[in-house]
Amino acid sequence: LGTGLKESLLTGLLANSGKRVLQLERKERPEWASVDLEELAERTEAPKPTAKAVGPLDEYSVDAAPRVFLASGAQLQMLVKSGAWSHMDFKRVHRSLLYRKRPDGSMDIHRVLANSEDVLKTRSLKPLDKARVMQLFLWVDRYDEDNEATHVAGVTTKRTLDLYKMNAASFFKFWELPQDAVQMIARGLALFTGPTKMLKKLPAAELVRRLKRYKDAYKTFTHMTSPYVYPVGGFGAELPKAVSAVLEDHEGAQLMGRPIDRLVFDESGAACGVESEGVQVQADCVVAAPEYVPERVSCKYTVVRLYAVLAHPPNMCKDAKSCQLIVPAMHTGRSNDIYLFTASSPLGVTPKDKWMVVASTRVEGELDADALAVAKRELVAVLPVLKPAKKLFAELLPYYEPTAESGTPNLHVCASCDATSHFDSVEAEVLGLYEQITGEPFELSARASPSELRARASPSELSARAGPAGRVAPASLHSAQVVPPPPTPHLVTVAADDGGGADDSAQRRSSGGEGRAASWNCVWCSTVPRASTAGRALARGCKDRAKDLHAQDTTSREDMPRALESMSWGHGEIPLTLSRGRPL
């Protein structure tokens, strides 16, 4: 019940795991859907802006709770295996930024440090602290959870770190990091959201997994300037349509504008379906957004969101065309962090030369004023980033969680979207619900490297080809063994830049490494670039099979995944392109 972010992702995962899913939405246009500026003004009860000030109103596509996701690890695999990835276009987010207060009290915004080069260039750390952070980064890069030889740390005094017996606070203490560096690593890279003192509750092993996940996201696609990716037009506009297409391929359906009369329970009290317009639908279980079961949820706190239309990039954000900015609570005198997401025309969110900024946090004061006044009070730390703004909108949204009494068998209630602008809380809840429903954990390779992910992808979506205006289209990580190909071949693109175009040398570099050409011959013709030794081995291993399939114009799409499995995938970084103009 519902077409929100969590409900839609869970729908795709269940459908691709062999379940028949019926997704019902009581409104023709749900509140979670992306809206244009006129609809946003109506929803927030603000005066309608003029086209002269903000541009064409209908060219905006604003998510109610925009979220970026990491291009690696469980988040990426979850989107791929839900099937939604194959029906959506994604582009990279330009910047990943962090806010801090300088010793003199002035504000500073800098890039989240992800490698040694970033550490050397940053102005936020002293020289001695830079050396310590670089040692930590080098150790994390070498660290392999399954290889104890990589657990040894230290320059002069060697020590084997048992991360399973350490907490994150002890881990940072071992490296003698200052508080600014701890905040940068914990908030910026590990995306830790709790109070700093709660680092004592976070296992060091989990912290290092998060650090490696963040750093690996830069390697998944070419030309990544941040580890984040965002769908063109926003999740609210594209995800429900993508999930609808997935359901059609798996004997399911998505029905909009269907009022829900009540939930149906059997004699034992377990949920067994719903009733809509007098028609009962039987089901093994029911998943509901909080608005469908108000008696089974409670409001934990209130989230405030401020929407700002700018005619310039956010101040001090490195001329970012899109970015995520995290404002740690310790630098603002608050108890909760502030999250800021910026998007513009390259992401299909605004008209040209306009920026949409969404800032959000938990309300810590009284709700004794209108939404805009509360937003200005709670988000005062980021207001200098937005000046001058063409138009401001604000709204207050309750955060609902299932109550302890809502544990009815076969009824699973989702929580609302929190104030964060990244995907961590969504990932945790969706995968937790998936395990509750199916009785088994979601199968994913949490520590899979980018090359391993690419090795399991289908050739059509691994192709890296130069697009118009210098854009590069490294395709998705759609797995032929897990998700069947959609009826219509679809290549998902990730932009090489944010509108300025990539240089020729960048276009010539593919995911296979420097020196390899971006133009590849057809593997079905058993020809590959001469420079690739691994490519020649691949061609030799499947030569006869490739020729047979290439000669058969009648090869069905159902045979194609089996054909891929029969090939010797000994190398995970070989992009393959089109065969006779057709995606494989």
Kindly list the characteristics that best describe this protein.
three-stranded antiparallel β-sheet, seven-stranded mixed β-sheet, alpha+beta, 21 strands, 19 helices, globular, 584 residues
Main pleated sheet: 7 strands, mixed
Biggest sheet, spatial arrangement of strands: 5-4-15-16-17-14-18
Helix content class: 25-40%
In oligomeric terms, what are we looking at? Answer: single chain
Q: How large, in whole angstroms, is the Cα Rg?
A: 25 Å
- Judged by helices, strands and strand pairing, the structural class is alpha+beta
Mean pLDDT: 78
Query: How many E strands?
Result: 21
Question: What report would you give on this structure?
Answer:
- This protein is of the alpha+beta class and 584 residues long.
- Helices cover 29% and strands 18% of the residues.
- The chain has 19 helices and 21 strands.
- The strands form seven sheets. It has a seven-stranded mixed β-sheet with strand order 5-4-15-16-17-14-18, with helices on both faces. The chain has a three-stranded antiparallel β-sheet with strand order 2-8-3. A three-stranded antiparallel β-sheet has the order 10-11-12, with no helix packed on it.
- β10 (262-265) and β11 (271-276) form a beta hairpin.
- α1 crosses α13.
- The radius of gyration is 25 Å and the shape is globular.
- The two termini are 36 Å apart.
